[in-house]
Design brief:
alpha+beta; SH3 type barrels; 4 helices
C-alpha cells in the first residue's frame, strides 16, 4: 500500500471539510479563522516551489487560528483579493489563496 505525504494527501482529497472553504472561494465580507495552509505541489506557483510559497504564506501570518475577513476584490476576475488578517491587511492572488482553508463563522456560512 502506498503512503502519501501530507501534501500528496491534500492533492488526492482537495475538498475542505464541512463549514470550511478555500480562501479563493470566499466572498466579500466573509469572516472566519484559518483552518490550515497546504500548498498544492502539483500546481504552478509562478516559479516558486510549493515549500517556498507555503513558507511565505506562514511568514505573512496565514497561520491556523488567525482571524480573517475578505475586505476587497479586484475589478477584473475578482483578483487579487485583500483580507484583514488579525490586525493587518494583506493582498494576494486568488491562485495562491486556494492553498488557505478557512472555517467560516456562523454569519458567513449562513449566506
Amino acid at each position: 500500500m502506498d503512503h502519501l505525504t501530507p501534501a500528496a494527501a491534500l492533492a488526492a482529497d482537495p475538498q475542505p471539510a464541512q463549514g470550511e472553504v478555500r480562501l479563493s472561494q470566499a466572498r466579500l465580507r466573509d469572516r472566519g479563522v484559518i483552518g490550515s495552509v497546504h500548498v498544492r505541489p502539483d500546481v504552478d506557483h509562478h516559479g516558486l516551489s510549493a515549500e517556498e510559497l507555503e513558507r511565505r504564506l506562514l511568514e505573512l501570518g496565514f497561520v491556523e487560528g488567525a482571524a480573517i475577513e475578505v475586505i476587497h476584490e479586484g475589478a477584473i476576475g475578482r483578483d487579487p483579493i485583500a483580507v484583514r488578517l488579525d490586525d493587518m491587511r494583506v493582498a494576494l492572488r486568488r491562485h495562491d489563496a486556494a492553498d488557505v482553508v478557512i472555517r467560516l463563522d456562523a454569519r458567513s456560512a449562513a449566506r
